[in-house]
Amino acid sequence: MGDFISRHKQEWDELAALLQRGRRSAKRLSPDEKHRLDVLYRRATVHLSQVQTRTTDAQLVGYLNSLTAAAHSLIYLPPREPALRGLWRFLSEGFARSIARQWRFHAVSLGLMLAGALLAYFAGSHDPLALYALMPPGDPRVPGTPKEQLLEILRSGRDTGDGGKFLFASFLFSHNFKVGLLSMALGVLAAVPTALLILYNGMIMGAFVAVHHQAGIDSEMWAWILPHGVTELGAILLCGGIGLQLGWAVISPGERTRGEALKRTAPEVGRTAGGAGVMLIFAALIESYLRQSHLPTWARLSFAAASGLFWIAYIASGFVYERAAKRRLADDFDQPERASVRFGHES
Predict the structure, then answer these.
(1) Residues 6+ apart with CB under 8 A from 314
(2) From CA 38, how far away is CA 23, in angstroms rounded?
(3) How many CB atoms lie within 10 A of CB 183?
């Protein structure tokens, strides 16, 4: 074994030196050094296999094992990037791609909410008692409420100071976060409670619209809901889609156990949940500051339209990014030499 060590120690030392140089960033290495690192890594893995079968020298085995593990991480694992850059990459691309990958669950969530809203709206239009049953207890906005009183509620809070609006934004985020979290968590119960919760939230929305429509308040009502509602309801729908995704992992785990299926779903769920949380923060700020401002109706509706166009374009970009990523993967599969050692490039 002494001869074996003396023959290969120079290569191990060279590999260790290259690892030391490239530890902080693979960009420190030249193309020739990267190629040399790849060659030395493959040789070291062979040496490790030989040592494990020919000797009981635990110290040598441990040294070669740590050496090859470090080389593997440098060659094949994506490089660490600054936290702010990673956050920007997630917000600009990663979140949208996560939505695109699981779009079917989010589409079902949207369908459930729309079904609930339409059901409550038409039911309330034919039977006012249905609206009494659907509106939250104690809410003064019920069928027969005078138009002036409804308008007064819609316009309340506009003279609140910045401190009060900030506290209100905190309360709104906390409330909406609980609703979103509940929609996600209940998904593990085969998604049945999640589906019912989404349906119920849609029914509350439909009842709210019906009450104001019957009073002849349409444009101002939509100007009150939509500026924050586009983002807020979008986040709630995504949380519902997460719950449905978790429920599907429980219902149809395939060849895995249900626990394994849920674990496999966790990374995607975490990405979508993180993005939905950011949406809820912005929705709370919009609801507190913009909704309770003196902006005219047309300005509020314009903001809502701009928000809707932004989210449509953002989600569409996720499909574009996903399609491009699949195309690159197919090209790499057809031409394996292009996917050998990328050193810091996405594989």
Answers:
(1) 96
(2) 14
(3) 27
- Report the distance separating Cα 217 and Cα 151, nearest Å: 8
Backbone φ, ψ for residue 254 (5° rounding): 75, -135
Supply 45's token pair. Answer: 């893995």
Give the chain's radius of gyration (CA, Å).
28
- The DSSP output letter for 311 is H
Higher local confidence (pLDDT), 195 or 82: 195
- What gap in Å lies between CA 315 and CA 93, rounded to an integer? 9
For the chain, percent of residues with pLDDT exceeding 90: 51
CB-based contacts of 269: which residues, under 8 Å, 6+ apart? 184, 242, 245, 246
Q: What does each C-alpha distance from 201 to 117, 173, 179, 238, 324 come to in angstroms?
A: 8, 17, 10, 14, 36
Residue that is written with structure tokens 């740590």 in the block: 66
Q: Is there a contact between 189 and 258 (Cβ–Cβ < 8 Å)?
A: no
Q: How far apart (Å, rounded) are the C-alpha atoms in residues 194 and 113?
A: 11
Helix (H, G, I), strand (E, B) or coil at 227: helix
Helix axes 31-54, 58-76, angle to 10 degrees: 150
Per residue in 84-141, pLDDT tens? Answer: 888 888 999 999 999 999 999 999 999 999 999 999 999 998 888 888 888 888 888 8
Rounded CA-CA distance 276/285 in Å is 14
DSSP letters for 74-92: HHHSPPP--HHHHHHHIII
Closest CA to 180 of 93, 262, 281: 281
Contact 194, 187 (CB under 8 A): yes
**333 confidence band (pLDDT: 50, 70, 90):** low
CA dihedral defined by 326, 328, 333, 337, rounded to 10 degrees? -160
**One-letter amino acid of 273:** A
Q: Where are the domains of the chain?
A: 2-76, 84-332
